[in-house]
Write a structure and sequence with these properties.
The structure holds 2 protein chains of 2 kinds. Chain A is mainly α. Helix content of chain A is 76%, strand content 0%. The radius of gyration of chain A is 27 Å and the shape is elongated. Chain B is 71% helix and 0% strand. Chain B is mainly α. In chain B, α1 runs antiparallel to α2 and α7 packs across α8. Classes of the chains: A mainly alpha, B mainly alpha. At the A-B interface, α1, α2, α3, α4 and α5 of A face α1, α2, α3, α5 and α6 of B.
């Protein structure tokens, strides 16, 4: 077969139109949709998850406020740690679902293929950077708060330990280290989760780059 | 605007079928993605400023949407992704009943998303300038790329 046969093969293949035609009604109906059925369904699932996690997180925050601000509950720092960890977990799962939703809803259709790929790549990077900054602010501020409480010895922070027999470091030190590492762990997790998407984008952009041609040949 | 869009889509609907066949040939959600392309075309329509032909704009949006859908499938594990190994060209090649259309579509399915976009524009008789406009590459590079993809396609068609 010759290279020039491809075009004639394509034209012959599409000489007859065997596909169904649109009716005006079905077109109007489709135009009224936000997304197609399957895509709406998957977006709905992500939205539902995000909403559910937000709701649980808000209930958690409300309960904490009720317990500590209204009832003036005075718990030991040892008892507070599991509550803080639970809150941290809820915050991470909630933001992670929102990030997924943002990634799934961003588009750049009106540009050329290359610009669309580059724009989407930038959007994806921006979403992940903002997510990282939010987590960093939250967890680093929490770490600063723990250090401050330790230094001023609020709530018996200085005496807090896991029994010096197990770990000979004060527990607040471990907590601070954990909090400082959380944003980086989330960044690692996001890079892993969106790895395939980044690799598809990179490969597609590479194929559209004139540079790749000169390098490749 | 709605009426105008409907008329334009009706007269260019074969393009959408071809794009869907190229990107989602054996995908169980093919009809759905076809609908999604239509939805996204309608959403993008206010951005169409008659600076290019309607078909050029339609290809640009439809190809971007198709590539975007495939990209996002990587985040949706429940979607069934058919491996390219399932497209057995050799089997089709030896089957006298399978026609050229099947063979060509199956061969194109083995190309990357970007290569699929470029080859469909070439097969649809777009000139290098238009292909460059839709894809965002230079005219010269479009020529080089088309030549390489054609060679690849011929190789697939001849050898399975």
């Amino acid at each position: 077969m010759d290279k020039n046969d491809l075009k004639s093969m394509w034209q012959d293949a599409h000489f007859t139109n065997c596909e169904n035609n649109f009716s005006k009604e079905s077109l109007e109906k489709t135009m009224g949709l936000k997304h197609s059925k399957a895509i709406s369904k998957s977006l709905f699932d992500v939205k539902l998850k995000a909403l559910l996690y937000t709701l649980i997180f808000l209930i958690y925050v409300a309960l904490m406020l009720y317990a500590f601000a209204y009832l003036k509950l005075n718990l030991s720092v040892n008892s507070l740690i599991p509550l803080v960890l639970a809150g941290t977990f809820l915050l991470i799962t909630t933001t992670s679902e929102f990030v997924r939703l943002l990634v799934l809803t961003k588009t750049a259709d009106n540009l050329s293929l290359k610009d669309s790929l580059l724009t989407y790549n930038e959007k994806l990077k921006r979403i992940l950077t903002i997510d990282f900054i939010i987590h960093m602010l939250f967890f680093y501020l929490s770490a600063i708060l723990i250090i401050y409480n330790y230094l001023t010895d609020i709530g018996g922070f200085k005496n807090l330990s896991w029994g010096n027999e197990i770990i000979p470091i004060p527990l607040p030190g471990i907590l601070v280290l954990m909090l400082l590492s959380v944003p980086w762990l989330i960044k690692y997790q996001n890079n892993h989760r969106y790895r395939k998407m980044f690799s598809i984008l990179k490969e597609s952009v590479h194929q559209l780059n004139d540079q790749s041609e000169t390098n490749g040949s | 605007m709605e009426k105008e869009f409907i008329e334009l889509i009706k007269s260019h609907q074969r393009i959408l079928h071809k794009i869907c066949n190229i990107y989602f040939l054996r995908d169980p959600y093919k009809e759905d993605y076809y609908q999604e392309i239509l939805v996204r075309l309608w959403k993008s329509y206010p951005g169409f400023k008659n600076q290019s032909a309607f078909s050029t704009w339609l290809y640009r949006v439809a190809l971007n949407t198709s590539i975007d859908i495939i990209r996002k499938q990587s985040l949706q594990p429940k979607h069934v992704e058919l491996s390219v190994t399932e497209y057995n060209i050799a089997e089709y090649k030896n089957n006298p009943e399978s026609d050229n259309k099947d063979k060509l579509y199956l061969a194109i399915n083995l190309l990357s998303d970007v290569e699929k976009a470029i080859i469909i524009l070439y097969l649809e008789d777009f000139n290098y300038n238009e292909i460059a406009e839709i894809t965002g590459i230079s005219e010269n590079y479009a020529g080089v790329k088309i030549n390489r993809i054609k060679t690849k396609l011929i190789k697939i068609l001849n050898h399975g």
